[in-house]
Amino acid sequence: MPNLRTPDSGDQYCCPACKADAPYAWDETMDAGGSDWPPMPDALALAHLPADLLGELEARAGAGVVETMFNGPFFAIPLDREDDLIGVLRSAGFGVCRNDALIVSIDADS
């Protein structure tokens, strides 16, 4: 992927983390640090999962809607209820499994 430059930057890259021989890494730029891009999976769950599935996750996995001042509502599932989450999703026909390597690869703090 090409590096991004500002229109008037000449040979200067738009951020110190952007180097000519390295791929663009959004998590090194801090461009998305204080906003809701990319949308949180928790917020996407409210927009894309069927209401009956959300209700089942509330009843069986201790999940619920959390309101935030800046980014609006999101669907929170307690971390210690992972087995319940997987059970509900599998019973609804979703093929799910734990993938720690994937989570680590997208974790901005790692």
Overall description:
With 110 residues, the protein is mostly helical. The chain has two domains: 31 residues, no CATH class; 67 residues, no CATH class. The chain has four helices and two strands. The protein has a two-stranded antiparallel ribbon with strand order 1-2. Strand 1 and strand 2 form a beta hairpin. Helix 2 runs antiparallel to helix 3. The longest helix has 11 residues. It starts with 40 loop residues before the first helix and ends with a helix. 4% of the residues are buried. The N terminus is likely disordered.
Instruction: Tell me the radius of gyration.
Output: 19 Å
Query: What structural class should be given to the helix and strand makeup?
Result: mainly alpha
Query: What string, H for helix and E for strand, traces the elements in order?
Result: HHEEHH
- Percentage of residues in helical conformation: 25-40%
Strand runs, count: 2
* Regions with little confidence, pLDDT below 50 for 5+ residues: 1-13
In round numbers, the mean pLDDT is: 75
Q: Determine the number of helices (DSSP H or I, runs of at least 4 residues).
A: 4
Characterize the largest beta sheet: strand count, sense, and whether it forms a barrel. Answer: 2 strands, antiparallel
- Percent of residues in beta strands: 5-15%
**Tally of structural domains:** 2
How far the N terminus sits from the C terminus, by CA atoms, comes to 22 Å
